[in-house]
Amino acid sequence: MASGEKVDYVFKVVLIGDSAVGKSQILARFARNEFSLDSKATIGVEFQTRTLVIDHKSVKAQIWDTAGQERAVTSAYYRGALGALLVYDITKRQSFDHIPRWLEELRGHADKNIVIMLVGNKSDLEDERAVSTEDAKEFAEKENLFFLETSALQATNVESAFQTVLSEIFKIHSKKNI
Ligand code: GDP
Ligand code: MG
């Protein structure tokens, strides 16, 4: 990216959810179009960026990962976040059962207008599915969240998940400027 890059907006989006649900691989897929099956727990990396064009404006998405500290995500992590991907693993029931707690924490810390997408990752592992699409959809509707199932491995819906959240943030943000 050229150093003289002109950016119209910078939107901070956070990734949250249990350890090993695939947050870091979702981010690697979105930011660098990469995937690794033997990814080590995220250490040190705070965020990655990717600049996209939405409605003729240049939008820099700044995506924060938990750096492997899922149990100790702090208020600094949520500060200024305009969007969130709330991730569970469709093959791990427990990671879905923990979603209400993550949502509560998120709503306790973040801006009240935050755009939230519930993400059921690892949709490529259909044979090991432990959370039905219907259950997740019902929860998302009840809580007013967007919802998609993704596969970071197969690059399914990762782009859509971020695009939806960023476009929605853009809508809210540009309304403020009318
Ligand atoms: P995090 O702890 O939430 O950041 O999870 P990681 O991104 O480190 O992923 C945990 C493990 O799940 C790694 O072995 C990944 O390769 C694997 N993984 C992540 N996404 C997918 C996916 O979409 N499909 C499959 N089959 N495995 C995945
Ligand atoms: Mg990670």
Automatic annotation (TrEMBL):
One of its GO terms (molecular function) is GTPase activity. Keywords: GTP-binding, Lipoprotein, Membrane, Nucleotide-binding, Prenylation. The keyword tRNA processing does not apply. It comes from the Eukaryota. It is a lipid-anchor. Belongs to the small GTPase superfamily. Rab family. This is Ras-related protein Rab11D. It comes from Triticum aestivum (Wheat). The gene is LOC123042467. The chain holds residues 1 to 178 of 214 of the full protein.
